[in-house]
């Protein structure tokens, strides 16, 4: 009896010990923390802040090197004096545009650090995620190339930095052309070529001028897979190569996939140089690595910084403008870098943008007029449209083959689970009867596995190859409704039927032709079908349209999504079905494995279009600041499609559209030919202090939070946040009358007279003073914009100011106003 009691006591003790150990493990779980420190970083030390049009620091000077070393030493001293030995690892010291560091430690140690002397701000790493053959012609880019001496010169002398998944240096889009050597004129840039697996020293060939990788955050967060997570700038994913080639890939590169020629690819600025900063890996992406890459890219001296990566959700405990990612972009802008970022892929929900700040250009995504239609021919002569970049079934889609529904070809005595993945979705070849499906066109159904994102098209293709399908269909399921289908290269004939109505046409024909016994088993397959060629482009689509996935405004300043007086997104660019370079390893997309090119969609794809166009503008106007480039892109954009009608936006339902607003497309679709010569420009944030003044003018803002994050005091707030000199006007609350100020510069070579006209937002009248003006070349003109509420509205309404010049310049200013009440 006593022995039994001892056993019970021992079990209770072991249970208690186990509980204590579990709690201790949870408490000791480590994470990455980003820390900002008091004191100027090296780029801005002992001098006035650099102008936007120059990188005035000299990183090779003894003063710069000494201060940078002092910052690193101070970070180590703080950690040693604050945290327990062995409880942390410093991953990076940020010392160029920001004074701070990233540390891997426990939550309890991080709390000590947060209260340590000299620590201004601390944020837990939220992780980082990833957000052409035809688009140069669609945007009229060759016209800009002509102005720059043709495609063999377009973008010459400009360096575009890419913080992404790296680059595939063996791709022809990044090859060096000995017949068209680069000029050595990339003054102010000093990068480095880091080597490693699959990235030899000759990867930096003159086209690629610098390549670095950042992995301290990734290694601290996850166990990296050495077969794909290469510690080198090599791109095992493909995303970084796609983005870089869209902005600056060589011109005229043939796009060949599965032996089919799709056309020739070119970047927006094919002669721009490429600087690579790999910060996202197949296994993991951390904000820590991304921020270190931004700091280094700015130190290297890139002209343009392309961010198709970043946090995938808004910050929870701070102003959107004051999260670490936006702070780093602010200081990159302060150092003279044009920063462009993806708006996000959470559309069409309102206030879903992930680009918040006026110092970075947030890019929305649109489609072009190009589509790749595919079709299915049924035995009764009916044709059903679908999606799929595949060749036709044997006989060019004219010979008909037996049509089989996957669940009618299941092995009767199979031992596999009776789940949708096995019996409906064609995910497992062992579930299907080889004698039935071989040489047939097989109907696979979009079911629970696809809805839960555990089933893949790759598995269907594997099944089709293994069992010898003539072709396959992936059809919509009435239980789950229509699905969104994007054209993907299939190595076997295949077609997706994303519409339930179309799927029912196919299934009704199939059932009518199929003979069954009393148990429901098929005794004879009489239905037949053929898959047509889905690789031939059509150019009949209404375009552009704002893509469904593209994140929408209004911009917001906090977790409660209180609207901000800043227009987001800023601009619209092609981001739907974009051909560009790829990495054959394709570590995150097995269906694209082995391909040198990929057709992708996302605001990630739209962002490099703007980066490349900014390079062309910078080449044409070398002395222009980032704000002038941003203004030119905005004021020359169009809100009309190729038919002269208002750009439409895709809604929630597949195939639905609604008239778009600036919260869908910003200023409109980018117009590169006009942007190189905009006439007037708004110099927003000409001084770094302008952005500080903007933040200090935000409603209910705590000045201490501004000072903590930026090191600047709120000594000169704007009278209203909407008075930041942006090329748009957004006012989130107007009671009675609101006066907004703007200043324009004539960046043209001749004097010009402008006449102002207004399309007021509903519920308002808008007056511009002066209504007309003459302005000298390089002159300035102040404008007062008076907004009067005539009817209170419950939602934003939209209009525009158009300034028409005597030399045919047309300058558009989008108006987005929420009229709260008619009285102040």
UniProtKB/TrEMBL annotation:
GO CC terms, sorted:
extracellular region
Q: Please list the GO biological process terms of this entry.
A: proteolysis
Keyword Hydrolase present in the record's keywords: the answer is: yes
Q: Which residues form the Peptidase S8/S53 domain?
A: 155-644
- One family from Pfam that matches here is Inhibitor_I9
> Domain named Inhibitor I9: which ranges?
64-130
- CDD domains documented for this protein: PA_subtilisin_like, Peptidases_S8_3
The record ties this protein, via InterPro entries, to: Peptidase_S8/S53_dom, Peptidase_S8/S53_dom_sf, Peptidase_S8_Asp-AS, Peptidase_S8_His-AS, Peptidase_S8_Ser-AS, Peptidase_S8_subtilisin-rel, Peptidases_S8_3, S8pro/Inhibitor_I9
Keyword Lipid metabolism present in the record's keywords: the answer is no
Transmembrane segments in this chain: where? 13-36
Alphabetized, the UniProt keywords read: Glycoprotein, Hydrolase, Membrane, Protease, Secreted, Serine protease, Signal, Transmembrane, Transmembrane helix
What's the domain of life for this entry? Eukaryota
Subcellular location per UniProt equals: Secreted
Spell out the catalytic residues.
164, 239, 604
What residue stretches are annotated with the Subtilisin-like protease fibronectin type-III domain? 723-817
Q: GO MF terms on file?
A: serine-type endopeptidase activity
Query: Which Gene3D superfamilies does the UniProt entry name for this protein?
Result: 2.60.40.2310, 3.50.30.30, Peptidase S8 propeptide/proteinase inhibitor I9 (3.30.70.80), Peptidase S8/S53 domain (3.40.50.200)
> Family assignment?
Belongs to the peptidase S8 family.
| Protein name from the UniProt record | Subtilisin-like protease
Lineage, please? Eukaryota, Viridiplantae, Streptophyta, Embryophyta, Tracheophyta
């Amino acid at each position: 009896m006593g022995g039994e009691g001892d056993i019970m006591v021992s079990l209770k003790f072991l249970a208690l010990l186990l509980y204590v150990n579990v709690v201790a493990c949870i408490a000791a779980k480590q994470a990455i923390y980003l820390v900002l420190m008091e004191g100027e970083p090296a780029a801005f030390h002992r001098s006035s802040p650099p102008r936007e049009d120059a990188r005035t620091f000299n990183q090779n000077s003894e003063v710069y090197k000494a201060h940078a070393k002092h910052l690193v030493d101070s970070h180590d001293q703080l950690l040693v004096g604050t945290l327990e030995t062995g409880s942390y690892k410093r991953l990076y010291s940020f010392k160029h545009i920001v004074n701070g560091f990233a540390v891997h430690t426990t939550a309890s140690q991080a709390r000590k650090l947060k209260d340590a002397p000299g620590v201004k701000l601390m944020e837990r790493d939220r992780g980082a995620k990833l957000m052409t053959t035809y688009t140069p012609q669609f945007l009229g880019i060759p016209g800009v190339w002509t102005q720059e001496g043709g495609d063999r010169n377009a973008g010459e002398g400009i360096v575009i930095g890419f913080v992404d998944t790296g680059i595939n240096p063996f791709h022809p889009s990044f090859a060096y052309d000995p017949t068209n050597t680069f000029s050595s004129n990339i003054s102010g840039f000093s990068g480095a070529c880091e080597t490693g697996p699959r990235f030899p020293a000759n990867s930096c060939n003159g086209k690629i001028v610098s390549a670095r990788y950042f992995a301290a955050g990734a290694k601290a967060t996850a166990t990296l897979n050495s077969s794909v997570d290469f510690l080198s700038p090599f791109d095992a994913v493909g995303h970084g190569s796609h983005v870089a080639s869209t902005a600056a890939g060589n011109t005229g590169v043939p796009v060949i996939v599965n032996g089919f020629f799709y056309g020739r690819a070119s970047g927006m600025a094919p002669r721009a140089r490429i600087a690579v900063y790999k910060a996202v890996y197949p296994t993991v992406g951390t904000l820590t690595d991304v921020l270190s890459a931004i700091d280094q890219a700015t130190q290297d001296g890139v002209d343009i910084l392309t961010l198709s990566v970043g946090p995938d959700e808004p910050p929870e405990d701070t102003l959107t403008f004051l999260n670490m990612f936006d702070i780093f972009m602010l200081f990159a802008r302060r150092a003279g870098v044009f920063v462009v970022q993806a708006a996000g892929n959470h559309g069409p929900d309102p206030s879903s943008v992930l680009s918040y700040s006026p110092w970075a250009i947030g890019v929305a995504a649109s489609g072009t007029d190009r589509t790749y239609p595919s079709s299915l021919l049924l035995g009764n002569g009916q044709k059903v449209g679908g999606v799929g970049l595949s060749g036709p079934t044997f006989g060019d889609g004219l010979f008909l083959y037996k049509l089989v529904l996957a669940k009618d070809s299941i092995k009767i005595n199979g031992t596999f689970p009776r789940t949708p993945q096995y019996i409906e979705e064609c995910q497992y070849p062992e579930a299907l009867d080889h004698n039935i499906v071989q040489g047939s066109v097989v109907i696979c159904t979009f079911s629970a596995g696809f809805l839960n994102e555990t089933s893949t098209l790759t598995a269907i293709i594997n099944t089709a190859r293994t069992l010898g399908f003539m072709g396959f269909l992936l059809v919509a399921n009435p239980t789950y409704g229509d699905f969104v289908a994007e054209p993907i290269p299939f190595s076997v004939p295949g077609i997706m039927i994303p519409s339930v109505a179309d799927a029912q046409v196919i299934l009704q024909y199939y059932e009518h032709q199929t003979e069954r016994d009393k148990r429901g088993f098929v005794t004879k397959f009489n239905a037949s079908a053929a898959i047509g060629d889905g690789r031939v482009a059509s150019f009949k689509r209404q375009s552009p349209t704002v893509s469904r996935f593209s994140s929408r405004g209004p911009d917001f300043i906090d977790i409660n999504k209180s609207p901000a007086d800043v227009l987001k997104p800023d601009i619209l660019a092609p981001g739907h079905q974009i051909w560009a370079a790829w990495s054959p390893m394709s570590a995150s997309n097995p269906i694209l494995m082995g391909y040198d090119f990929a057709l992708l969609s996302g605001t990630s794809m739209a962002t490099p279009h703007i980066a490349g166009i900014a390079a062309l503008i910078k080449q044409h106007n070398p002395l222009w600041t980032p704000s002038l480039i941003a203004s030119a892109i905005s004021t020359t954009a169009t809100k009309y499609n190729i038919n002269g009608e208002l750009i439409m936006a895709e809604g929630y339902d597949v195939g639905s559209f609604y008239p778009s607003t600036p919260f869908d497309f910003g200023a409109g679709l980018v117009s590169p030919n006009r942007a190189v010569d905009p006439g007037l420009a708004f110099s927003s944030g000409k001084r770094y202090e302008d952005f500080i003044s903007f933040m200090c003018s935000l409603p209910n803002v705590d000045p201490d939070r501004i000072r903590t994050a930026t090191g600047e005091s709120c000594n000169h707030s704007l009278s209203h946040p909407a008075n930041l000199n942006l090329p748009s006007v957004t006012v989130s609350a107007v009671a009675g009358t609101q006066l907004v100020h703007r200043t324009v510069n004539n960046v043209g070579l001749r004097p010009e007279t402008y006449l102002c006209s207004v399309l007021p937002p509903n519920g308002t009248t808008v007056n511009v003073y002066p209504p007309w003006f003459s302005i000298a070349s390089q002159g300035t003109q102040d404008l007062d914009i008076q907004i009067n509420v005539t009817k209170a509205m419950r939602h934003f309404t939209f209009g525009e100011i158009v300034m028409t010049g005597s030399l045919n310049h047309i300058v558009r200013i989008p108006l987005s106003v929420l009229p709260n009440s008619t009285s102040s």
